[in-house]
Amino acid sequence: MKYRSLTVKSREEWDYYVNKSLLHDVFHSWTYQSLNNEGESLLFVYEEGSIFIALPVVKRKVDGTDFYDMTSVYGYCGPISNVNMAEISEKTLTSFATAFKCFMTEEHAVCIFSRLHPFINQCYLLENIGGVVENGATIYMDLSSSVEDQRREYEKRLSRQVRQLRKKEYLIKETSDTGEIRAFVDIYHKNMDRLHATPQYYFDEAYFTTILSMEGFDSKLLLVYDGAVLICGALVLLSDTIIRNHLSATSPDYLNESPSKLLTDEISVMGRRLGKKIFHLGGGVGGKEDSLFEFKKRFSNLQVKDHIWRYINDRKAYDAIVAKAGFDLDMQSNYFPLYRQPKEKSTQVFHITN
């Protein structure tokens, strides 16, 4: 058995594994991983003969201890491989699990939390390592259908609103202009203010600029103008088969106009033009069927189950850390790891629903 972990500094080797994988997304790339500010980005690689399994993680210090924990970047990540994961033998699965647990021990990591990718079959690989947990449903559009057929599936009121927005003749454009990026970041931050977001979601201008200039992934900034006024925008991520609205924002002065509905419709048009198969809209906050979920559901009834992965490698250390922080914790919470639960409630996922 042979395995090794690579740090984010080894960009060439990191991207070698990503590019050789059967299925991957922008979230797995070295550049996207390097944007995280929570800890050290590592790529765990398990190799057995011609097969490899690679898992990007973020290693974070657990304050006040000698331990660390692992998490995933903002988005949909999880393991990738150069073979269909459903065809990996039980023997290899067992060896991978053993190697990964050794990796966690060597890194002094007590546990790991990761969001999984809904369109990569990762559950089969991970279900015997800790717990793979359903996290509600995630919504998508099938871009192999015509845009006319798609629009016929819109909720009736939404369909009328999109037609009305089209009649307003707003200007919709793609851009990489520095000034326009800065203007979009400004309205994005105003949206974060309105949603009382935690600091980690205040992505700066460099974040957007870096994503728009990533090698190997053709990301887009799509903006909507009313004359010379920027009223809405979205950072759109593209992988081989998937297009998604990663981060979006609407000008506070235009919330009642709901231009994000027009923008969502336009992203589906863009996806078809670029040859993508799926427009991934995502789900509700924390996997719940909330107002955000219902907003997305107006566009499509197509859903797949969303999953998260939780694994405790050192139960003794984990329990001790939880006990130490226990006076501040809701011990009945499903938050994981329990000792990192937010002290105040805050919005965790941001997509504008107006």
Structure description:
This protein is an alpha+beta fold and 354 residues long. It is built from 11 helices and 13 strands. The protein has helices at 11-20, 30-34, 90-106, 123-126, 147-152, 156-167, 178-194, 205-212, 259-273, 291-297, 315-325, and strands at residues 2-7, 40-48, 51-61, 68-71, 80-81, 109-115, 131-142, 171-175, 220-226, 229-238, 242-250, 278-282, 303-312. Helix 6 crosses helix 9 (259-273). The longest helix is centred in the N-terminal third of the chain and has 17 residues, at 90-106. The N and C termini lie far apart (52 Å).
Beginning-to-end CA distance, first to last residue:
52 Å
Summarize model confidence as the mean pLDDT: 92
Order of helices and strands: EHHEEEEHEHEHHEHHEEEHEHEH
Number of domains: 2
Proportion of β residues?
25-35%
The fourth-level CATH homologous superfamily of the largest domain is Gcn5-related N-acetyltransferase (GNAT)
CATH topology of the largest domain: Aminopeptidase
**Major β-sheet annotation:** 13 strands, mixed
- Count up the helices: 11
* Cα gyration radius (Å): 21 Å
Give the fraction of residues assigned to helices: 25-40%
The backbone outline, from C-alpha atoms, is globular
The total count of strands amounts to 13
Helix vs. strand class: alpha+beta
User: So, CATH architecture of the largest domain?
Assistant: 3-Layer(aba) Sandwich
Unreliable stretches: 345-354
**Quick one: CATH class of the largest domain?**
Alpha Beta
